[in-house]
Write a structure and sequence with these properties.
Layout: H1 15-20, H2 27-42, E1 75-77, E2 80-89, E3 92-97, E4 100-105, E5 110-112, E6 137-140, E7 145-150, E8 153-157, E9 165-166, E10 171-173, E11 181-182, E12 193-195, E13 198-204, E14 210-215, E15 218-224, E16 228-231, E17 243-247, E18 253-256, E19 264-271, E20 279-286, E21 291-295, H3 312-317, E22 321-323, E23 334-336, H4 339-345, E24 350-351, E25 369-370, H5 376-394
Parallel strand pairs: 8-10, 9-11
Antiparallel strand pairs: 1-2, 2-3, 3-4, 4-5, 6-7, 7-8, 12-13, 13-14, 14-15, 15-16, 16-17, 17-18, 19-20, 20-21, 22-23, 24-25
Amino acid sequence: MAFNGSGTFVRLFSWQDDRNNGIKIVADRHDQEDDGIATGLSNTICKDGQSTTTALIPFAAGIGLNDGTTSAPAISFNSDPNTGIYRIGADTLGIALGGSAAVRFAATAISPAADDGQALGTTSFKFSDLFLASGGVINFNSGNFTLTHTAGNLTASGIFNAASFVAVGNVSGDVAQFNNYNVPNGSASTPTLRAQLDSDTGIFFPGANLLGFSAGGIEYARVSGSGYLLVGKTTVNTGDAGTMIQATGAGRWNVTRDNTAGTQTTVAFYDFNGGAAGTIVGSISTTDTATAYNVSSDQRIKTDFQDVTDVGSLIDGIQPKSFLFIGKEEFGRTVGFVAQELMQVVPAAVTVGSAEGVSADDPEFVPHQINMMALMPYAMAELKSLRARVAALENHP
């Protein structure tokens, strides 16, 4: 054994000791010593690469290498000499593949050797998971679009165009232009689409062909695939309380009431000028068989009462007309009033629309409209006057 196992070369004989001890130099002893030297030299590494190691080499202070290049990396492989590791510059390493730069390792980042240079994974070899620290950012094109993590949320900055997007957790930010946005169904208490700071208010999907709207964890409305808007109720054509509006093919809305007997206010109109609570100024009410259109007329909200008298001249000033609607002549004549004429006699009966200079062909044109109910008190006053005069004539001796 030329080496003692710790890397120290051990000689078999000492020629000086042999001389002192009277031992002559003989061939067999010389051959044993030379064989040991030969064995020791055979176990060393040749600098010209003639030999390979047979075990791991425990270097005490590392290996000093040349920088290498992409075509001849400092650390390479016998069967692939232009693939390996080389030094790019201070504190920066590179990986060369086939003689070309592939990846850079710097103190603060791992990057491809060139902009838009390498893919992370392939269609055949994919990573199973990507783990980022809290607050991590995925940055596209130097900030053109980013995904930033905060506790429990992922915030997008930029425009997200996608043919399909499936969200499992919370997604917030300026996310738009989805061709197909696949999300969990959610519920009234945890809507699928909701504000970051109001987690129980938003939109959810209660079932097939249904879209629900909730506030404060309570469902207040839903839209069905059959064209119904349900407010305060969740099923179509049932007696539960709430309002059901159907958009029909003819452009008609059907407003339904529950099956409770008696008069019910189906639609109420409020005036909020008098306070936050508002005051009902009109309503549409229904019974089991009839519909009433109501105007607020409570004594408790009126003052300065005066009888309506001497309305004969006013009645005479109202001119009923028959007419055709322009562009709808085929529907025949109808009867009514002309708003501009009625405005001169009973202004309160006319809701003023567009100014007279605006053409009826203008897209923004709004016609003057007439409230027929405003004429009823005058007609009633004239009827009472006529009845009084008839009674006086009948009682005349």
